[in-house]
Amino acid sequence: MSAQNIRDAVIIGGNRIPFARAHTAYATAGNQDMLTSALNGLVARFGLQGEQLGTVAAGAVMKHSKNFNLTRESVLGTPLDPKTPAFDVQMACATGMEAIGSMANKIKLGQIDSAIAGGVDSISDAPIVVTDELRGILMEANRAKTMSQRLKAFAKIRPGHLAPQAPGVNEPRTGLSMGEHMAITAHAWGITRAEQDELALASHKNLAAAYERGFFDDLVTPFKGLNRDNNMRADSTMEKLGKLSPAFGKDLGEDATMTAANSTALTDGASAVLLGSEEWADQHDLPKLANFIDYEEGAVDFVDGAEGLLMAPAYAAARMLRRNNLSFSDFEYLEIHEAFASTVLAQIKAWESEEFCRNKLGLDSALGTIDRSRLNVNGSSLAAGHPFAATGGRIVGSLAKALHGKPGKLGFISVCAAGGQGITAIIEGR
Amino acid sequence: MPRDIYTEFANTGLGRSLTKNLGLPQPAKLRRHRPGRALVEGPVVVLGSSEASAALAERMLGWDLDVRRHIGPKEKVAAVVACFDSVSTPAQLSAVVLELGSLLRQLMPSGRVITVFRDPAGTEDPAVRAARSAVQGLTRSTAHEMRAGGTANGIVLSDSLDASAPGAAGALRFLLSGRSAFVSGQFISVDTVNGALPNDWDLPLDGQVAVVTGAARGIGAAIARVLRRDGASVILVDIPAAGEQLAAVANEVSGTALQLDITAQDAGERILAHAAQHHGRLDIVVHNAGITRDKLLANMDEARWNSVIAVNIESQLRMNRAFLASALFNADAHGGAGMGPRIVSLASTSGIAGNRGQTNYAASKAGVMGMVAATSAQLASRHGTINAVAPGFIETEMTARMPLATREVARRLNSLNQGGLPVDVAETIAFLASPQAGGTSGLTLRVCGQNLVGA
């Protein structure tokens, strides 16, 4: 296909429910409730009732097996035309970005004219897995043809089999939690406690200020009585942050720098972004906030410690910027998701490091510096929270709005993910 | 919505006989509008031999109504239209009045009495003015005497206006219909020939774009539903904190949700921008959003006073300035066929009668009435109208929080012996927002079941 056939994929707007710390406001809501609510808010904002959209793509990281068709079931709970197809995506914390990027590509290629992409995650309603032994016995009982066979199977159950297996956030291949992985990376890059606390404080201040000036009035729809992200601490100070003891990398002793405040809390939430072709947006009298320009996936080999678990975006960004002939100074705003404050700082140090960029990224020189005044200006994951799959939708909705009315100005997005993966993206205001 | 258990009981067989024998109030189940349902369910008797009686009788014949000049003593009557438009002395009232009185016992449940007369303020002749004013008094008293959900209201025609004007037909049809179920003892003045009758009386707002503030719940949500039912596209506005319910109502009425604090300086501009983006026009504005912060004046603090004034009246003044400055808010300019833009504001009977503990609220709502009267002239140049609706006791979440005894008294203190429903307020607003109400502007219309005081 020739390049002339590629058309613009327009970001029309976004909607999310406020993000809630795990086991708080949404403790009794499931993934489907939250995703449906985020979609309903989007439908109401843009008057999409009865519309048949090209595709809806979304997903969750912590997902019940009963939610195998989570996105489709959520669409059926909205006033969208039930003839709208939907599918589930899963790429850990990059789920939302992958859903948005792939839907933008379908629009660019002319395969569909409109799409909703997003994600949802609930820690509070996480699937509980039973032990392999118990599962074996239950399946055996299920296969039983007679009552006595069934009773014989059940008789094998021992108390130890009944302990529920909490869903792991540990990396399966290393057994280390994401925080422990990041602590290793942070230490290796010499990230200080003060730097991390400053980044966390800026996140809370920027998010609170954005709420105060009404920035989220048309991006967030309340859910279950919650109006704003309840992880946000508008009154946070460096002194308060400084009092917390380290939460990760405790074996580093004095060098442990990562606390509960400069790491993102486990969060429940959902988000959705409406995308369309230019023609579709015009036909439906919908706004055109920004164009989705490009995105890049990346992965690193973290298992043997060759690279930090959350460093994949450093590599993806380099490839994406080279492909588009851009550098960091070309961006009006940069949205770098913090699984941890140190993730952002390590990435920035890597991009600024001549050595890293030559040896690991194969460049001639350092990739460049990040202007901190353009970084996460409307708050970020540290303050808002990070419901894994919902983070991409939060970032794209907010960044597109920030770039609206600034035609040609660019926005940079970076999201790290479990499994050593990550996604970076570029959008352009209009 | 709170249940009116007394009314439910009074409408059972046992309840009917008990309340009758004990002389208790007998609230009837009111006839309310449903699309496709007959306008009235029986004959309409037109009294008087004036110009208006001929014009209105002809109009009703055009609506396929069973219009009579005379009716047998045993027949049931759905409505009586009593025309007094040619009276010039009080003595001339008696012929029509006595005939009206003889028909009252024949009225069906939810029957209608509609008087038609000329504006008393339109004459300096003492005898003529006395006669016209007398009609107001007899109409209000008749309303008090109506039974079984019946209402009595008046249509006040300005002196030079031909009774075949669209505005007169619009007011007549509204008062005959179930849309005016909770309107009684009130007068709709028709001053100009402006306005147009709809092609489809079930879709009078077809193709129009309306914005409703405070649309997430209660009366605001009911307004959005009725405007949609009547054919309008609706933009629903409420504060961001009410966004979840706002989205639910928006999805129900296939509208768009705009989360916005109407006290923001640029609220009017943001509504206009939303309307321009999604519809390219704005025809109807319903200022419904309002708050109460009740306190005796002796205990009134600055925050309570200021917030009520800011939300209930200052915001409306500011938004109206933006709307009136915009070419978008000009229905005639985009093929409105003489329709003109419409503004309807929520006042309150508290603003008329006052209410203990509501100096701030009553001030703001009286302010709305003043604002509406004064803004009328500014809309006249674009054939637009602005009116206010003053609800009495309406069954909402707000009145559900009233103490039981107070609520029960408030419910029975009107001629219909019951509280109104949010839909009753919404129906009156939809009427005032409609093309057929183009002759009425600057008016405050009560929807209170002829409540004795402000509630």
Automatic annotation (TrEMBL), chain A:
Q: Domain of life of the organism in this record?
A: Bacteria
Give the enzyme's EC designation.
2.3.1.9
Keyword check for Transferase, yes or no: yes
Keywords recorded for this protein, A-Z = Acyltransferase, Transferase
Domain Thiolase C-terminal span(s) in chain numbering: 289-428
Q: Which GO terms describe its molecular function?
A: acetyl-CoA C-acetyltransferase activity
Q: For the Thiolase N-terminal domain, which residue ranges apply?
A: 10-279
Q: Name one Pfam family in it.
A: Thiolase_N
- Identify the InterPro entries for this entry: 3-ketoacyl-CoA_Thiolase, Thiolase, Thiolase-like, Thiolase_C, Thiolase_N
Family affiliation: Belongs to the thiolase-like superfamily. Thiolase family.
Protein name, entry field: Acetyl-CoA C-acetyltransferase
What is the native source organism of this protein? Nesterenkonia lutea
Task: Name the lineage.
Answer: Bacteria, Bacillati, Actinomycetota, Actinomycetes, Micrococcales
TrEMBL record, chain B:
Q: Has the keyword Metal-binding been applied to this entry?
A: no
In alphabetical order, the GO MF annotations are: 3-oxoacyl-[acyl-carrier-protein] reductase (NADPH) activity
Which EC number applies?
A: 1.1.1.100
Q: Which InterPro entries does the record associate with it?
A: KR_dom, NAD(P)-bd_dom_sf, Sc_DH/Rdtase_CS, SDR_fam
List UniProt keywords, sorted A-Z: Oxidoreductase
Query: Which stretches are transmembrane?
Result: none
Say if the entry is tagged with keyword Cell cycle.
no
Task: Give start-end ranges for the coiled-coil region(s).
Answer: none
Principal EC category: oxidoreductase
Give the signal peptide, or none.
none
Q: What NCBIfam families does the record tag this protein with?
A: PRK08261.1
Question: Would you identify the family this protein belongs to, as annotated?
Answer: Belongs to the short-chain dehydrogenases/reductases (SDR) family.
Tell me the PANTHER family matching this sequence. Answer: 3-OXOACYL-[ACYL-CARRIER-PROTEIN] REDUCTASE [NADH], SHORT-CHAIN DEHYDROGENASES/REDUCTASES FAMILY MEMBER
Please report the name of this protein according to its UniProt entry.
3-oxoacyl-[acyl-carrier protein] reductase
Native source species: Nesterenkonia lutea
Taxonomic classification: Bacteria, Bacillati, Actinomycetota, Actinomycetes, Micrococcales
